[in-house]
Amino acid sequence: MRRLRLGRRGGIGPIFACGLPMLIGSAALAVDLGAAQLESRRLQGIADAAALAAAGNPARAQATAEAVVAESGWTGSVTTEATRGRYRRDAAIPVADRFDATGAVNAVRVRLEGGAPTYFARIFGARHVAVARTGTAMRSDYAAFSIGSRLAAVDGGLLNGLLGALTGSSVSLSVMDYNALIGTDIDLLAFLGALRTTASLGAVSYDDVLAAQVTRSQLLDAMAAVVGDATARNALAGLADAAGGGTVALAPLFDLGPIGDLDRGEAGLVRVNAMAMLSTLLQHGSGVRQVDLDLGATVPGLARTRVRVAIGERPQGSPWISITELGTPILRTAQARIYVEAKLGGIALGGLGTIAGIELPLFVELASAEARLTDISCATRATRSVSIEARTGPGKAAIARIDTGKLDDFSTPMTFAKARLVDTLLVDIDGKSVVDLGSVEPWQQLRFSGTEVDAASVRTISSSHALEGVAVSLLRTIELTPVVGGFLPLPVGPIVNALGAALIPLGPALDSLVNVATGAIGLRYGQADVRVTGMRCGRPVLVA
Asked: Which InterPro entries does this chain map to (predicted)?
């Protein structure tokens, strides 16, 4: 034993035996871990490719991801899980929380779990190293849509009065000018590009342009610069000269969403009706919330007509035109109140003969209409479509006496009293009629095909309450009460019947007047026009 303890021959054997596990462990750490990292990077590439493919066809996300993995050349077993959801590009949200598997679908997350083979670690019984990688891809499909109303009829005098009040100057456009504006669309992105020049802005992106303060004349010059129709262009140029100064910020009206940080965009992606845009810009930039117009005897059948228009704000600061990803936001029109004081002259009433005139006060109130994007389908070009939900705002109309001092106070409900329609020495006749469309309207589904989007087709939704026309409906249900000596009610008799018969024919003329007044500010009683002004099916991109 002493010789064995003191002997130096063969000492390397025990040392090697003791150090061999450490050598193998080091080799496993270096070679097997490096190989696992390499396989992990390969698996990440496959996960990214699967996510991109699945995001291009979310309806078949799982099958598409599995097909990509099967064709990837991965030799080992792998588990594929594709999850559809919504990805939000918001710096305020932690990266790990930006994918929401319960939200509306605009992204797909693919998780792959597999194993990387080992070489040296097999000695210790570990034949594989588990590896898992996740790839997330989203596709930004854009749609621009608007809600409002186009003018169904044109009255040059009324429109000139409205635009004149909004510009603070005299406006004398012809019916031909207005028809040209109504029939012309403006490319919003081209308009913003032209505004950079007309307003001499140093802005780079579209959002920079929207945030800048520009004058009304600069806005109208930019509109004229991008309008193709010569008549509409000349009309806008003339309005630009009359509009004067007064700065306007466009950001509250237009939300370009994910393309706002670009300096140029796809032509025709967002189209806006020239007349609707003109009216909206002037309403927003003038600061005028109530317009008082004396139309005299220009309305057929009426001896005198006075129109008061009060324009409210859009609720919650919602933009008028929005480019958005799936589901947001809700667009709302402005509120409005119209009060028409009409007088009929030379009307013969049984028992009273021909009287000097009949006063007819007509009040119309329109709440904001709403529209929201619910789906963008880009599966194939032939089947691409955009789905919108929309509903009309509640409306109220009356033939009654109101407090005109509260016409532009939209926070206060309007109260209605009997109006004095006929005032003579012997007999007075009071009248009152109210039509209420209610407070809640159901959402109505509208699907615009790709062809309809390209054609800028307008779809009209109507209130669930049947209505034959504001004035016509009111006149058919008006309650007339004759009063003798100012205090003694009398039963309905020949005088009242004659007055009712004289009022009915005036309904269509008053309805036409109301339609022009409301249409000029983008509204219509009991109806709303919706159109998708453009759509773009984007390519999937990797995120997170």
From this structure: Tad_N
Q: Are residues 69 and 191 in the same domain?
A: no
Distance CA 309, CA 365 (A): 10
What is the separation of C-alpha 477 from the centre of its chain, rounded to a whole number of angstroms? 36
Q: Of 287, 322, 342, which residue is a domain's last?
A: 287
φ, ψ of residue 383 to 5 degrees: the values are: -110, 5
Based on the fold, state whether residues 338 and 246 are members of the same structural domain: no
Maximum C-alpha span of the chain: 151
- Distant-in-sequence, close-in-space partners of 256: CB < 8 Å, separation ≥ 6: 206, 207, 210, 270, 323
Give per-residue pLDDT as tens, 36-78: 677 788 888 888 999 988 888 887 889 999 999 888 888 778 8
Structure token pair of residue 462: 């109507």
Could you give the angle at which helices 216-226 and 188-198 cross, rounded to 10 degrees?
Answer: 130
How many Cα atoms are found within 13 Å in the side-chain-facing hemisphere of 176? 5
Of 189, 198, 196, which is closest to residue 217 (Cα–Cα)?
198
Interacting residues of 188 by C-beta distance below 8 A, sequence separation 6+: 144, 254, 269, 270, 271, 272, 321, 533
Q: How far apart are alpha carbons 423 and 486 in whole angstroms?
A: 9
Range of the domain at 154: 140-161+288-544
| 3-state class percentages of the chain: helix first, strand second, coil last, to nearest 5 | 35, 30, 30
106: helix, strand or coil: coil
pLDDT at 355 over 80: no
